[in-house]
Specification:
Blueprint lengths: L2 H60 L3 H38 L2 H8 L7 H7 L16
Helix pairs in contact: 1-2, 1-3
Length: about 140
Amino acid sequence: MAEGERENLTSSNSAGTRDHAAYAELVSYVHRVHEKCRRLLRVGIIVFFALPVFLAVMRYLAEMDKEVTLIIWIICMFVLAVFLIFISYFDRHLAKVMEDINAQNTADRVDNLMLIEPIGPIAKKLIDYDGQQPAIDAEGAGE
């Protein structure tokens, strides 16, 4: 085998290993995000049911008007519902993107990593509250 062919094989094996590592890191990151979404949804549902009880207790302790309590309750319910819908949509969208990537063969996986829409700043703050970032650069290679 010629020296040039040996270098070409080594670089292609290195690229394949790098691609596999990037894909494995992406899958790990998606699983972490999915678990965070599940926790956020669980906490949101608990708050959804606990908020009326909390507001009722506060109304009697602070002797607030019924109308003020009702307005606060309605606004909080709408905000919480929008939050839960957003987290659920984000989680399903991420699962669909991963399903699309998994449906294709291994050679196309790294090319398709670039098709994933970037996480918006609000979603990034909600999901990455622990500050962990995936170590995948712009070319999709984990280094």
